[in-house]
Design a protein that fits this description.
The chain is α/β, with parallel strands linked by helices. The protein is built from twelve helices and twelve strands. The chain folds into two domains: 50 residues, no CATH class; 286 residues, TIM Barrel (Alpha-Beta Barrel), CATH 3.20.20. A ten-stranded mixed beta sheet has the order 1-2-3-4-7-8-9-10-11-12, with helices on both faces. α5 crosses α6, α7 runs parallel beside α9 and α10 runs parallel beside α11. The radius of gyration is 21 Å and the shape is elongated. It is found in: Cytoplasm.
Length: 373
């Protein structure tokens, strides 16, 4: 990656960022300049997708170095980009100030629309059997600035194509509702006029089913869309592939979905994600249990082909014919159902695949250094 200009502060763990309203306001007051200049700078960064060095040109010459010495205009360092040779996926690998790697995935649809899959944690405590990130272990939460910077930098990557991110999905590394505070702060900034001004309706937050936090989030952001990684309508099967399911049984989760339906517009549905695993959750009786569990709920089923991950050879994805039969059974019962097309297989788009080993090595070396200190 090219080095940053001298006028741009590299992100550090202690440097306040352009995403932090209080820190930005404090710097503005110390430097005694008009609030309109902050709005102009943020517009250049988040609406016009200009690089930090270009965006700084919106400030008077005498303020550029002073302001950028106090406020970091980035929170992450973009290290690598992997473009799929078979579809419109691009994997972006970032480094945090502490040196941990995280990833985001750009998904370009044939319609020209672009979605960005963002990460909320380094690692994940949910430890789902099918997920590479869960096998990484838990390192720590991302800050709101680190979540938001994925969006800003993805938009800058897309600007060369004359496009920008249309849909944001919190389906990357981590369980968003285990990092409720940072994710809430990020959603506030994403949707605010002073930030990205991104429509609530084009944001989807996916959770493995942290019911209490999901209800709090929906009360605070009722216009955001929500998805639950269900993957089974049988409690024993769900616990087998999602250890956290023991804390949030299906009966309670169903009540949560019902309350979300009451909170949200009649046109809003809760997405149920269902990873198709051969011999585990893809039999006709599994579909029937799913139909019964979903009865009277306003939901949309999303059937997902399995992206194989390292260290999980016991899991095999259902074949296409099985997925289609399963989907037809759901549709025949009146359940809105979509079969997702899996993108980015050739760039390991299964979340966490590329960065897992690197983060494990860093975590081990950090632990060793702490033990020797």
């Amino acid at each position: 990656m090219p080095s940053l200009p001298l006028s741009i502060v590299r992100p550090t763990a202690s440097t306040p960022s352009i995403y932090e309203d209080k820190a930005v306001e404090q710097a503005r007051r110390v430097l005694r300049f008009d609030p309109g200049l902050v709005r102009r700078l943020r517009t250049a960064l988040f609406k016009h997708n200009r690089s930090p060095s270009d965006a700084l040109l919106t400030l008077p010459v005498q303020l550029r170095r002073q302001f950028s010495s106090q406020i970091a205009l980035t929170a992450l360092t973009l290290c690598e980009r992997f473009d799929s040779g078979i579809d419109g996926a691009s994997k972006l690998i970032f480094k945090t100030a502490e040196g941990y790697a995280i990833e985001s995935v750009l998904l370009r649809a044939a319609t020209g629309r672009v979605a960005l899959c963002v990460s909320s944690q380094i690692g994940c405590a949910a430890k789902c059997d099918f997920c590479a990130t869960g096998r990484m272990g838990m390192a720590h939460d991302l800050s709101a600035a680190e979540i938001l910077d994925q969006v800003a930098q993805a938009n800058r990557q897309l600007s060369a194509e004359g496009r920008r991110v249309r849909n944001l999905v919190f389906m990357g590394m981590g369980e968003p509702l285990h990092n409720e505070q940072s994710v809430s702060e990020a959603l506030d900034f994403l949707t605010s006029a002073q930030g990205f001004h991104h429509p609530h309706s084009r944001i989807l937050l996916s959770t493995v089913g942290v019911a209490d936090a999901l209800e709090r989030m929906a009360e605070r952001f009722p216009r955001v869309n929500y998805a639950i990684s269900l993957h089974a309508a049988d409690q024993a099967v769900r616990e087998r592939i999602i250890p956290l399911a023991k804390r949030y049984p299906l009966h309670d989760l169903r009540g949560t979905v019902s309350r979300l339906n009451a909170l949200q517009s009649d046109r809003t549905t809760v997405m149920l994600e269902y990873l198709m695993l051969a011999g585990i959750n893809d039999a006709p009786e599994d579909a029937d249990r799913l139909i019964e569990w979903s009865r009277t709920l306003r939901v949309h089923l999303n059937l997902i082909p399995y992206n194989p991950v390292d260290d999980a050879p016991h899991l095999v994805g259902s074949d296409r014919a099985t997925i289609e039969r399963f989907g037809e059974r759901l549709k025949a019962a009146g359940l809105p159902t979509t079969i997702r097309y899996s993108m980015g297989r050739d760039v390991d788009a299964a979340c966490g695949q590329l960065v897992r080993r690197e983060n494990r090595a860093l975590a081990r070396s950090t632990a060793m250094a702490s033990a020797l200190a």
